[in-house]
Design a protein that fits this description.
Helix 1 runs antiparallel to helix 3, helix 3 runs antiparallel to helix 5 and helix 5 packs antiparallel against helix 6. The chain has 10 helices and 6 strands. Strands 1-2 form a two-stranded antiparallel ribbon. Strands 3-4 form a two-stranded antiparallel ribbon. The two termini are 30 Å apart. A hairpin with a 4-residue loop joins strand 3 and strand 4. It is mainly alpha-helical and 267 residues long.
Length: 267
């Protein structure tokens, strides 16, 4: 399945709203009497240019993560057809004595750590969560880029908050609110978004360092392969290897091989 096919009609409005809000805040900060505008007036264009490029980078990353395939599990027929056509689909090889369960919704063979998302109507490999902000799932394919996006977005928000604060002045006059209303609203929105993004980034980095997912962390007692495991987290290989596998691996992982290597008893 191609990423564009997963776009729901409501998703377009979410993406438009995100882009419009990001552009409006950035443009407003450049047009108001802030540090960035003062630097422009002095001919110091480096920081304003970097700020604009960071905003554009965050928007492009948002669309990339939002529209890309998060790791949809393909039916056997589609995988075979892709391999026959030489399209280079890389599917992890699982030991022959391990049997995969079938999803009760889309009937595909469901790899370990995959989950069916009823909003996307597909099973997703190493499912983390469905993000309403992206209108897409976060899974094995787009999770690393999602973390990169959060990091860039946090830098933009922190810088934007500093810029908005630099434009505020607190002289007692009737025109005070009129001159400060945009910057006050901008600072409040940026502050709220910063807290949300910071909490998301910290929580995801912690889960990645443990090689677990949001879904597994929240539903540990309901997931059969975790509930029946002799280990609290059968996928944890240490912080260094967990981070390396997450950020540096270019291929999908056969989690069954790691699970059954650590657990003598099958699920």
């Amino acid at each position: 399945m191609k990423s564009g096919e997963a776009m729901a009609p409501g998703g377009r409005w979410v993406r438009v709203a995100h882009t419009a809000l990001s552009a409006a805040l950035a443009l407003g900060l450049l047009l108001h009497r802030t540090d960035l505008q003062k630097q422009e007036e002095r001919g110091e264009l480096l920081q304003p240019l970097i700020f604009v490029l960071l905003v554009l980078c965050s928007i492009l990353l948002y669309f990339k993560v939002s529209l890309m395939d998060p790791g949809f599990v393909k039916p056997e027929e589609e995988v075979k057809e892709s391999e026959d056509k030489g399209q280079g689909v890389v599917i992890p090889q699982i030991s022959g004595d391990i049997k995969l369960r079938r999803c009760g919704y889309c009937l595909v063979k469901q790899p370990m750590r995959a989950k069916h998302c009823q909003l996307c109507q597909h099973c997703v490999r190493r499912y983390d969560h469905h993000c309403p902000w992206l209108e897409n799932c976060v899974g094995e394919r787009n999770h690393p880029l999602f973390v990169v996006y959060l990091s860039v977005q946090l830098v933009v928000l922190l810088w934007g908050g500093h810029v908005a604060w630099s434009g505020l002045y607190f002289e007692q006059s009737r025109e005070w609110l009129q001159h400060n209303i945009f910057l006050l609203v901008s600072f409040l929105l940026i502050f709220i978004f910063t807290i949300v993004v910071l909490l998301l980034l910290v929580s995801h980095l912690y889960l990645i360092s443990c090689n677990t997912t949001t879904w597994e962390f929240m539903s540990h007692h309901r997931i059969s392969y975790l509930r029946h495991s002799e280990l609290e987290n059968p996928f944890d290989q240490g912080i260094i290897l967990n981070l390396r596998r997450f950020f540096c691996s270019r291929h999908l992982t056969a989690w069954e091989n790691i699970y059954f290597h650590k657990n003598s008893e099958p699920v």
